[in-house]
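Hi there, hope your week has been kind to you so far. Do you reckon you could talk me through the fold, stretch by stretch? Thanks so much in advance, here it is.
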Amino acid sequence: MASQVRLRLLPSARCLFDEPVQVKVTGLRSRQVVTMKARSTDEKGVEFSSSATYRADGSGEVDLERDPSLSGPYNGVEPMGLLWSMRPGTLHKRFQKTKSLNPHVVKFSVHEVEGEGRMLAEATNERLLIGDDVTRLPIKEGNIRGALFTPPGRGPFPAVLDLYTLGGGLSEKRASLLASRGFVVLTVALYGHDDMPKNIKVVHLDYFEEAIQLLKKQDKVGSKGVGIISLSKSGDLALSAASYLQGVDATVWINGCSANTAFPLYYKERQIHPPLLFDISKMVITESGAGMCKHVTNNPLAEENRDTLIPIEKAKGHFLFVASEDDLNWDSKAYVEDMVERLKRHGKENFESVCYPEAGHYLEPPYGPYCPSSLHGMAGIPVMWGGEPRSHAAAEVHLWQKIQEFFRSHLSCEATRPTANL
């Protein structure tokens, strides 16, 4: 009977966003076939959902860590498949969860396959974006607008500047989760947030220099230099910061470009790089109405675009280059190959790279809904991001650990550094 069926989330129904949970059902009939579902609503009010069919064992149990899906968006054993396979009810929507204080709430349920699919049991998974006792401090100091996340304890902790989003608001998810893993993290906006301009025509590297100095003076920061983590357009800004500014010891570049893109880059009131531009006529519109813009960006290695290339050979810190081979936003893998070749040519060994064959553009902290397409801020239309969902989800799990290991390896802390009394 339905009253005997129980759906449990182990070890707890409350966890961090980047932590797996064991989804387990008991009290079913022996070998009963059921539909497992997950549903959630993001902070924009968009509903996401997923479902897959499972068969109970002889004891009437379904364990997603053990049992294969029989049908649905994935086949085989995928313990977190119901989370990453959630899709929006509306086409071309990306899962939006940017505010760290609001948890990602997922309703898991188990349903009969027969008849009207009656729900047999339900459980709520509260997936926190910020760990217990991690502090969040809104930053409005000098030109900097953002949020600072600090782990609990005396420290000292390594420091990271998160350039996740540089327009249209502030995304705190990655920063707050990194802080929950033992880093002091400052995430900043460049425009479109708080009292900042809604749009910009140029980017000033001085802004990131100011952010680095603000981060380094925090009481619990123990690393001599800071790390920078980026994604997409912010990748070239991270490269520029590492190449021109003091105090950048470790840079994570994820699916970006090797040249300065979109906006002229200034430093000390002087333009240091013109923008690498785009040829929108090269965009291919798919049947879904979304564009594919992988080949829209002009070639940075062409002679006329050489001034846009960022001189990463000048950087004193270490790089982690991350490329998705099925990135449909631009040719991230080719940019990595260019940067690796350039560094080797200059006798540099301060880098490592990782490529994910079937992953798409948006590599984020793991266990969020995979996004095949959504609105592109610059293109003004929905675009395809690429990736095979299952492989993309696996890449996010692997990369998240890789990022933390990279920063811990290259942002060593002074254990004897005094900590301010709070």
Notes: Confidence is low (pLDDT under 50) at residues 416-422. Residues 278 and 297 are 4 Å apart (CA to CA). The longest helix spans residues 389-410. The helical segments are 81-84, 173-180, 205-216, 233-244, 332-345, 389-410.
